[in-house]
Specification:
alpha/beta, binds iron/sulfur cluster, 9 helices, eight-stranded mixed sheet, TIM Barrel
Length: about 350
């Protein structure tokens, strides 16, 4: 038995009946999973593209009660720049993903069920124990992150319900391969959603990542329309998505949804199977950030190159230009917004986000 099969057998025991499902043919025990944009049609005994959700006798089984990774991070690392600046986040991930990005920086977690080299294990834990841990460590928020949270949404909601009772914010760090059903299911329990807009080329999504561009664009709109706080991130990869035309396409799309959505343009480093190119130069990130501003986005940030891209890590007031939050990497050096409840102390412009 290969290690990955052994892991899969163990994980199959860490499941519960899922809610994001529709019955397609009761007699044939055929169901459709609604948790991500793949909308897998599952015959009895089959599993979805993510490998972690499966049809067991006509019932969808979904992951619960374990973590594949757990740590406390600054909220800036997720990254959220307009949510509780400088605060800590209890960050948990499970195992598996509905994408297969060749440059994944968390591939040992996300590809644990596809790639035997990952060699990843898991730790059983209940939602209650997880939140007790967050309370003991006084974290301001809890985030489903590291692997794709959409594929384990039912358990995330179980965790988030308890987090809300404990007064914590709830966050998703996601590839944005959503469905209207999953966003509606999350909406009452989710405060902040970060979506990776990885490229504006559908061919790249399909060939290199295992997704569909339109699903991600739709999810960006749905999340914004649902009133969940949204930030978008593009990892700028040399030779993959760093042309000015493509960056303009991404910036224009986000601007069209809302100029108030923060756009993070962050630096790539060679990882997993994409080791054939260099790191993203600081000049490329600065060019991407300038494009975002010229397209009309009010909050554009560079990431992964602390102190090397001028003031692109800071939050400035779009009304008067004053610097409101100064950052260096994940560190908040100065924060003039939280005390004012998100209002620029200079000119009174309200800055969108979750500040208190
Ligand atoms: S989460 Fe996505 S990939 Fe997994 S079974 Fe559901 S639709 Fe398929």
């Amino acid at each position: 038995m290969t290690p990955s099969l052994s892991l899969q057998a163990q994980l199959d025991r860490m499941t519960m009946p899922g809610a994001l499902v529709e019955v397609v043919d009761a007699e044939q025990k055929k169901i459709r999973c609604l948790a991500c944009g793949h909308r897998c049609l599952l015959k009895d005994g089959r599993r979805g593209i993510c490998q972690v959700r499966f049809n067991d006798g006509g019932m969808l089984r979904v992951p619960h009660n374990y973590v594949g990774a757990l740590q406390i991070d600054p909220v800036e690392k997720k990254p959220f720049f307009h949510v509780a600046p400088g605060q800590s986040v209890l960050s948990f991930g499970m195992l598996g993903c509905d994408f297969r990005c060749s440059y994944c920086q968390n591939w040992e977690i996300s590809q644990a069920l596809r790639d035997e080299a990952a060699g990843r294990s898991f730790t059983p834990i209940t939602a209650e124990e997880l939140i007790a841990l967050g309370r003991a460590r006084r974290t301001r928020a809890v985030a489903s992150t590291y692997n794709e949270p959409l594929i384990t949404t039912e358990w995330a909601v179980e965790v988030f319900k308890r987090a809300k009772t404990a007064g914590m914010l709830t966050l998703y760090v996601s590839n944005g391969n959503g469905t209207p059903e999953v966003i509606e299911y999350l909406r009452p329990w989710l405060d902040g959603y970060k979506i990776d807009l990885k490229t504006m080329q559908d061919a790249h999504y399909r060939r290199e990542l295992g997704g569909v561009l339109q699903h991600v664009l739709d999810t960006i709109r749905w999340v914004h329309e649902a009133g969940i706080w949204l930030e978008v991130l593009t990892l700028v990869v040399p030779g993959f998505n760093d042309s000015s035309d493509e960056l303009w396409d991404a910036a224009r799309f986000i601007r069209e949804v809302s100029p108030d959505i923060p756009w993070h343009v962050t630096a790539f480093h060679p990882d997993y199977k994409m080791t054939d190119r260099d790191r993203t130069p600081a000049e490329t990130l600065a060019r991407a950030a300038e494009i975002g501003c010229e397209a009309g986005l009010r909050y554009v940030y560079s990431g992964n190159l602390p102190g090397r891209t001028g003031d692109w890590e800071d939050t400035r007031c779009p009304g008067c230009g004053e610097t409101l939050i100064r950052r260096r990497g994940f560190l908040v050096m100065e924060n003039r917004l939280s005390a004012s409840g998100g209002v620029c102390p200079g000119c009174g412009t309200a800055i969108p986000g979750i500040w208190r």
